[in-house]
Prior knowledge:
The structure is a single chain. By secondary structure, this protein is of the alpha+beta class. It is built from two helices and three strands. It has helices at 44-59, 61-65; strands at 11-13, 29-32, 37-41. The chain has a three-stranded mixed beta sheet with strand order 1-2-3, with no helix packed on it. Strand 2 (29-32) and strand 3 form a beta hairpin. The longest helix has 16 residues, at 44-59. The radius of gyration is 15 Å and the shape is extended.
Amino acid sequence: MRHCSTAPRHRIIGAGALISSGKRFLTRSLVVGAPAKVVRELTEDEEQSVLDNSSIYVKRIDSYNSLEHI
Length: 70
C-alpha cells in the first residue's frame, strides 16, 4: 500500500494488490490487482470470517511474542 492509502475494517486486500496513494475503498470490498480495484462486495460470511480470524491472532499474541527471534 502506498502512503495515504486507507484500508479500514471490513475489507479484504488481495496479496500483491498495488494500491495507489490516497486510494479509498468502500466497506465490505474485495480488492485485488495491479492497480488495485474492487472486484465485488464481501458476503456476510466472508466478512464474519475476517473478524473471526483476526480475533484468533489477538488471542494468541502472548504466545507469538514469546517465540524466539531468529
